[in-house]
Amino acid sequence: MMPTAHRRLLFFFLVILSAASIIVAAAAGSVSLDWDQWTNALLHPASEFGELVWRLRIPRATAAWTVGALLSLSGCLMQVLLRNPLADPYILGVSGGASFATLLGMTVGVSASLLPPLAWAGALVSILIVFSLARGEGPWSRTRLLLTGVVTASGWAALISLLLTLSPDGSLRGMLFWLIGDLSYSQLPSWAFATLIFIFLICLGMARSLNVLAMGETTARLLGEPTRKVLWLVYLLASILTATAVSIAGNIGFVGLIVPHLMRLIVGSDHRILLPSAALFGGFFLVFSDTLARTLLAPRQLPVGVVTALIGVPLFLLLLNRAKVKQ
Prior knowledge:
The protein is mostly helical. The protein is 78% helix and 0% strand. It contains 14 helices and no strands.
């Protein structure tokens, strides 16, 4: 277990890293700001640069940080739920339901304010489908849950492909960007940040149960854990986190897979340390990726999901190679 002094130093470093990433994101972009322009923009929100920083860049950076933290927490929970370090937030079809409902709303021209509720509705439908089919009549089965989730995700993917095929050309580019993962028009709704804090506190209170579940269901039962109830609660919380992230920024890959895996290698498997570490580093990682998406080909912007994939693929292969060498 990590010593208390090292734990505090790690959390302090991750908090500084997150704050620094938001500061850099506020200063960088197609129009770069020097130190004087940036400080003037902070002090005078009504100025030209102040409008750029306070109305565009800071809201986008805070939205990116929140989405990164949401996906990282969800990834931690999914990996406990399926006892698989390769599990990610999108594996059980929740994001597919949210994406289909949102894209359907874009196709019929609903207002942007209605897209998050549509994403939640689609995620809820997916949760109910997976829950009702995976529960069955017998004992809890991770294999049954995984197979049901994967098949449900495939069904949503087919419906999304059909929807994209039938969509008008004028809206197709925006829909594809959102589907890949895009923060171009993202703002941070207060309810999304409140959802993150609320579920984080619940998960932190469940840290002991998560540690026990990671050892196996038999061990958890012997230690008095109501495994079936806890596992369904973990699935529900992970689904809420995923649906919230998708409603803000679409499907952003690799954050919920890479960050928990990397943090577990650094801090270990104690969820009292892993959960806050993953949330903080996940927020930093997505802000950093989004800043690259805005600056690499400025003034053109890339979907942030492309950048996370370009970073995540080689990093994941490196982590797999390291694990293979250790074995």
